[in-house]
Specification:
- The chain has a single domain, classed as Glutaredoxin, CATH 3.40.30.10.
- The strands form two sheets. It has a seven-stranded mixed beta sheet. A two-stranded antiparallel ribbon has the order 6-7.
- By secondary structure, the chain is an alpha+beta fold.
Length: about 230
């Protein structure tokens, strides 16, 4: 089963855990986000990737510039360990981590969670790649993919026990869109996946294909709409 199929199965069966009102609120806010034009403003293929330095789950500072000095980077943004769709995506990337490194690339995941939460996730999922903390979502903002949950959805997430204020270090209402970038060693985005739909993520096979295509003159782009 592909990651896309796993994500769709999870979404289609959310009614087993969520009430009809909760799902309606989520869907209403998802439609508003899709109509906001945020994906049009996100960093895309051909743009220079904004540089950053963030702390890893173990407290080590990791800079994009230093990583790029060693080769291409696969940069993926996720909402947090509380998000089951994110966990599926990270698990799938871990399963393909060896294939990423075999292509001379470095895989890095970024979320707005504090390092302790990232460490717990890293240990639970057995992740072999760096998981970085973007407190306040400043890096996500620089990539044009940060958005505010708003009062209604923020209150709903609080009611579900996600504790975003705590796990995000006091910045509970700002999250990144699901996004994955393949950045070449010159710091240029060569492939991008950005979606407003929280049930969509980049397919690892597509990421690997993008890495394989780095030497070509026509890198691809994948930016699906909310109904993709």
């Amino acid at each position: 089963m592909s990651l896309r199929d796993e994500l769709r199965f999870l979404h289609d069966n959310r009614h087993l855990k969520l009430s009809a009102d909760t799902m309606a609120t989520m869907d209403r806010n998802a439609e508003a986000l899709a109509g906001s034009g945020i994906t049009d403003r996100a960093v895309g293929v051909g743009a220079r990737a904004p540089l950053f330095t963030l702390k890893s789950a173990t407290g080590t500072e990791v800079s994009l510039a230093a990583l790029l000095a060693e080769g291409p980077v696969v940069l993926t943004f996720y909402r947090g360990a509380w998000c089951p769709f994110c966990n599926l995506a990270l698990r799938a990337l871990q399963e393909h981590h060896a294939a990423v490194t075999a292509r001379g690339a470095r895989l890095v995941a970024v979320s707005p969670q504090v390092p302790d939460e990232s460490l717990t996730l890293t240990e639970k999922q057995g992740l072999a790649f760096d998981v970085l903390s973007d407190l306040g979502s400043d890096v996500a903002k620089s990539y044009g993919i940060a958005f505010d949950l708003g009062e209604e959805l923020g209150a709903l997430y609080d009611g579900l026990g996600f504790e975003l204020q705590r796990v995000n270090g006091g910045h509970g209402r700002t999250l990144p869109l699901p996004a994955t970038y393949v950045i070449d060693s010159a710091g240029v985005v060569r492939w991008a996946f950005v979606a407003t739909d929280y049930a969509l993520r980049a397919e690892p096979a597509d990421v690997l294909a993008a890495l394989d295509a780095l030497g070509s003159d026509a890198p691809g782009s994948d930016t699906p709409g909310p109904d993709a």
